[in-house]
Amino acid sequence: MKREELFSVRMRAAKGGAHERGSTHVSGGEMLAAYSDIQQAVMYLLEKGLVHSKGKPDFMQIQFECIEEPAKRVEPLSVTTNKVKSAKEGRALAWSLLEQSGIPRNIIDEADRLVSQYSSMRGAMLIDVHSGKRLDDRGEKGVRASRMDWQNGHYEKWAGCHHMPLHSRIKEALALATKVCEHRVAVAELCWSDDPDYITGYVASKTLGYQRITQLKEYGDEQGCRIFFIDGKEDVDSYIHYLEHQPVMIQWEVEK
User: Fold this and answer.
1) Per-residue pLDDT averaged across 144-172, rounded?
2) Domain check: are 91 and 211 in the same one?
3) What's the pLDDT score for residue 26?
4) What pLDDT, on the 0 to 100 scale, is given for residue 1?
């Protein structure tokens, strides 16, 4: 039986022209789709880019390309929601969860310092858990995890079973975190959005799963954070290639 072709459909939107001109990032997104579903994916991403709390973009790029590599199929990380009363409490919990994932506190503090240096990161910075040094050389661009999605209908079944909302935020974030943590080089991920109206973030790792934290910043704050803590003694280039090129499909069946 011939394998069905998959296409990576991607969108990025900005204010002030193309991202390469130093513009302000507004929105981005990606889906994996069969050829027959490309039009639906494009329309979804178009609407996502046009309607955003960061404002109206004056630049948008939507593209799709056929994926040659077969998709790796993996189960989603387990999910826990941690309710906190303030960003301060949320950050303290995040630091504790990162420590539980095996990252020394001095490395976490150094990563926090690096975040403040980059106010408009579009991707993630890769931080070595041994030295605290940033191992990618991408500057404000960072490294973007790409080519991941849920198998058709699987997120809806998962969300219904786990009493989670059907909106795209958790769906997309859980798919990304699952892909990021699947690789042997990964130790943990720390993330919160640059959306000024969305203050929830997460810590994710193989050992702790996807730990949602209801507040990691203040409303109105447009600075986001995405850090992949990795074992710098491993092949970092292979991890970057995996993040950018390896298609990963998240699948989930009703647990017996």
Assistant:
1) 93
2) yes
3) 87
4) 42
The range of the structural domain enclosing residue 10 comes to: 6-68
- What's the domain count of the chain? 2
pLDDT tens across 132-142, in order? 999 998 988 89
The three state secondary structure string of the chain is CCCCCEEEEEEEEEECCCHHHCCEEEEEEEEEECHHHHHHHHHHHHHHHHCCCCCCCCEEEEEEEEECCCCEEECCCCEEEECCCCHHHHHHHHHHHHHHCCCCHHHHHHHHHHHHHCCCCCCEEEEECCCCCECCCCCCCCECCCCEEECCCHHHHHHHHHCCCCCHHHHHHHHHHHHHHHCCCEEEEEEECCCCCCCCEEEEECCCEEEEECCCCCCCCCCCEEEEEECCCCCHHHHHHHHHHCCEEECCCCCC
Q: Assess whether 16 and 62 both reside in one domain.
A: yes
- pLDDT above 90: percentage of residues in the chain: 78
User: Does the predicted model carry a pTM greater than 0.70?
Assistant: yes
Does one domain contain both 51 and 151? Answer: no
Q: What is the pLDDT of residue 139?
A: 87
